[in-house]
Design a protein that fits this description.
The protein is mainly α and 45 residues long. The protein has one domain. It is built from two helices and no strands.
Length: 45
């Protein structure tokens, strides 16, 4: 189907990369261990 425009594709790809980083444990917040959901929520807010 493809992406409708470049802005949409960029947003989707960035979100996928962030989720991969969270899953691999590459997202740290001052050494405090957080669940994947807590890390994702902190990025959204």
């Amino acid at each position: 189907m493809g992406f409708k425009d470049f802005r949409c594709a960029r947003s989707i790809m960035a979100g996928i990369e962030v989720m991969h980083m969270i899953r691999k444990g590459q997202m740290h917040d001052d050494g405090i261990a957080k669940s994947a959901a807590e890390q994702f929520y902190s990025l959204v807010t």
